[in-house]
Please model this.
Amino acid sequence: MGELENRLEMTPIRFWNRGDLVERSGRKFRRRESSLQFESGLKESETLTSHILTLLEKLEHNAEVLRSLDDRFRCAIVCVSHNAQSMGLSLNSDVLRQISDLDLGLEFDLYGLTDPHDALVEARSLMALQSGETN
Model:
């Protein structure tokens, strides 16, 4: 990991190496791949486009390094969202072009904050109300 970090001249907020041991929920496993993670540094309340543009500005200084990476490396902007309601995602063609020019992928990890069991109970309740059933 040190070689890539040095080439990028950026400090990641999180990193791990392939093979590192991790424990979650009492289970141990080894990382399947290495990862360097960077953040925009903006407040969460800023728009998705603002976060991405800020990251692109930081990464543009490393454009040649990013383009020179071989197939051992997968580079992407990953957008993570935890929402209790639906949301829209929209990026204009200029932003998408900048991402493409740096040979980066774009990934979205979207998480609902509702408990699936609670959502099913609510949906069943609504269906029963519509059909006139009572419990």
